[in-house]
Write a structure and sequence with these properties.
The structure holds two protein chains of two kinds. Chain A is an alpha/beta fold. Chain A is built from nine helices and ten strands. Chain A has a six-stranded mixed β-sheet, with helices on both faces. In chain A, strands 2-1-4-5 form a four-stranded antiparallel β-sheet, covered by helices on one side. The chains are: A alpha/beta, B mainly alpha.
């Protein structure tokens, strides 16, 4: 279980997170929605310890990770997988090396075993025969899939998705949504996704939480989200320029 | 930068477990820089012979030309010019590569895989810089002296016997070691500055360009400052 308690973070004196509170149950998929630049990715990076909060607690299975030393944080990270917005594949490595990197560093597996697992994970995300390609040879959708294969290579308990469908065509976006659902159903992974793609949010989420002005202003099932009487939530999910959310920042 | 250097020193033993990464960087920084270093060194030696001959004219016998070229190359020109060539070629490339990794979240991705970027990216580059710059300087010294010899023989009318005799006359092995000491320091500076500027890159392609420029300027200045300090300590 992940609990975020009263989390604050700012950059260059500009507050981004101003008291975020959210709890994510084991096996649940929570989608965090909000405008671009509202701090969704910043929140995600706190959960995996890439950023330290200015104030507040982040509990993973009851333990506050904000004060974890580097080695303990690295142990914890082996329980996580993360899919980055641009996939963040290592340019200098092949697809198989990208997917198997965590395994080669943290296990005693042979190169052959790692390659086998990489191929298996790539197959899970619908990619076959791409092991020896370099990231530059892949399309955007394929890169995301490889990023996803890398995220699940170590059989994580938690997966964090940063804008999993951004920049993809609608068909590829839906294929990624199906993969996220499939991973939750087959591997029972706890998932947190940040997105502003509402079609994706409705499809993959058990719960949707909205981040606005540095706080979670709403959390509920996709149905509750659609029926929310919060004008901010309604403006966002309907994609209207008129309403309480200003278009000028 | 102090934090980076501290983490680098703590993680230095990891070079033994990531030998392939270290050798890959040695190839990039050392072997691939060799043609450029050799090319520039020929002219470095040649110009030092021409300049020395001009300054000697009328009051210093030309039999000391080999001495002047040898000393200038081994103590100063070999290490400093090689370092400046490597700054332009390697330091810029380290910053551009790591800077691009930073802005495309590849370094964050590495951390999420519980891999330490210092161990994985900085240590191999530091070891490669520390080891390969002295090797390049040895090549540079040798080729520059040959360049000086060629110019002396073909353009200044000095026999190879006179030049080489002058070279041997005041040759001290300690001069070579002094030059190599500089090379160890310069190699470390190039790798650390390149990595540091890469890691602090922000703001997309423009940020990568800014960091690369900063890295080249900072590394060049630090090479020249440390050159003065080492020269003062060893030869002052």
């Amino acid at each position: 279980m992940i609990e975020i308690n009263d989390l604050y973070k700012g950059f260059h004196n500009k507050p981004v997170l101003e008291g975020v509170n959210l709890a994510i149950q084991k096996g649940e998929t929570v989608v965090i929605i909000g405008r671009s630049g509202c701090g969704k990715s910043v929140l995600l990076k706190h959960i995996i310890g890439l950023l330290k909060p200015d104030k507040g607690q982040l509990l993973i299975d009851g333990e506050d990770i904000t004060a974890y030393p580097k080695d303990k944080l690295n142990q914890l990270r082996q329980r996580f997988g993360m899919l980055f917005q641009g996939a963040a594949l290592f340019d200098s490595m092949t697809v198989a090396e990208n997917v198997g990197l965590g395994l080669s560093e943290h296990t005693e597996m042979t190169e052959g075993q790692i390659r086998e697992i990489a191929a298996e994970k790539l197959k899970m995300v619908g990619l076959v025969g791409v092991e020896d390609l370099k990231p530059a040879e892949l399309s955007g959708g394929m890169k995301k899939r490889v990023g996803l294969a890398r995220a699940i290579a170590m059989n994580p308990e938690f997966i964090l998705y940063d804008e999993p469908t951004t920049g993809l065509d609608p068909i590829m976006a839906d294929a990624i949504n199906d993969l996220v659902i499939n991973l939750r159903n087959t591997l029972k992974i706890t998932s947190i996704a940040v997105t502003h793609d509402m079609a994706s949010a409705y499809k993959i989420a058990d719960r949707i939480a909205m981040l606005y002005k540095g706080k979670i202003i709403f959390a509920g099932t996709p149905e509750e989200t659609k029926n929310s009487d919060n004008p901010v939530v309604q403006q966002f999910i309907q994609g209207r320029s008129q309403g309480p959310i200003p278009t000028l920042e | 930068m102090a934090i980076l250097i501290k983490n680098l020193l703590i993680n230095l033993p990891s070079a033994l477990t990531h030998v392939s990464l270290v050798t890959e960087q040695m190839l990039i920084m050392g072997v691939n820089s060799l043609p450029l270093v050799v090319f520039t060194s020929i002219f470095t030696g040649g110009v030092s012979a021409v300049q020395a001959a001009y300054q000697f004219s009328d009051y210093i016998p030309m039999r000391y030309l080999g001495t002047a070229v040898g000393k200038a190359v081994v103590i100063e020109l070999g290490p400093v010019l090689t370092a400046l060539v490597v700054v332009g070629r390697v330091c810029a490339s380290i910053t551009a590569e790591l800077g691009t990794m930073k802005v495309t979240e590849q370094i964050d991705a590495m951390e999420t895989l519980a891999l330490d970027p210092v161990k994985y990216l900085v240590v191999p580059r530091f070891v490669a810089g520390f080891v390969m710059l002295p090797v390049l300087v040895l090549f540079s010294d040798f080729v520059a002296i040959l360049g000086g010899l060629a110019v002396s023989v073909f353009f200044l009318g000095i026999s190879s016997y006179t030049f080489l005799n002058g070279l041997k006359m005041f040759f001290h092995l300690s001069d070579v070691f002094g030059g190599l000491l500089k090379a160890f320091v310069f190699g470390s500076i190039i790798a650390i500055v390149g990595c540091y500027q890469g890691f602090r890159t922000e703001g997309g392609a423009e940020g990568v360009g800014r960091s690369t420029t900063r890295a080249v300027v900072l590394a060049s200045v630090l090479v020249l400052i440390s050159d003065y300090i080492i020269a003062s300590l060893l030869f002052g």
